[in-house]
Amino acid sequence: MFLLVGLGNPGSQYQNNRHNVGFMAVDAIASAASFSPFVKKDKALVTDGRIDSHRVILIKPQTFMNLSGPAIVPYIMLFKIPLENCIVFHDELDLPLGKVRVKLGGGDGGHNGLKSLDQHIGKGYTRVRIGIDRPPLRDMVSGYVLNDFKKDEKDIVEDTLIDINRFLPVLLGGDSALFMTRLSGVTQNGG
Known about the structure:
Blueprint: E1 2-6, H1 21-32, E2 39-41, E3 44-51, E4 54-61, H2 68-78, E5 86-92, E6 100-104, H3 112-121, E7 126-131, H4 141-145, H5 151-172, H6 176-189
Parallel strand pairs: 1-4, 1-5, 5-7
Antiparallel strand pairs: 2-3, 3-4, 6-7
C-alpha cells in the first residue's frame, strides 16, 4: 500500500498557485486512475484506489502548507504504511519549471510543508520535487510561490503532470532512477 501526498494550501484562492503543484499532481493522479472523488476526513481530503497492482491512498492535507504533518500522521498509523511507501509531491524552487526529481529523505530546503512532515513523520519518505523555477530575488519567494502559474507555465506543468502519471507505475515499483530517466527522456524528445 502506498500513501501519495500532495502538498498545497486549501481554498479556491490558492488552487492555481505555484505552491499548490503538489495538490495538482495528486488531482491528476486521481483523475487518470479514475479514483472516486476526494472526501473530507479529519484534516485532509482523501481518496483511494488501485494503480496497477498497488493499493494507493491519495491525500491533500487541508491544514495549510506549514501544518501538513499532522494531517498525514493518522493515515500512516491507521494503515501501518512504511515511510518508504509514503510519496510526497511538492513544489521545488531549485528546479526549472516542469523538471522533476525524486529523492528519498534529505533536508527540507526551507520548504515549510516538508519541515512539518519531517517533524511529524520523520525524513524517510520519498519526495517528488516538481520544478517551479525561482524568482530573481530571494525576498520575492513568498509572493512568487503564492502567485498563479502564467498561461504558458500552466501548459508546461500540465504536460509534466501527464508524464508523471504515465510513469507513476515505475516509481511505485521502486525504481525512482528509471522513473526520472523516463521523465527526462520525454522532456528531451518532446513526448
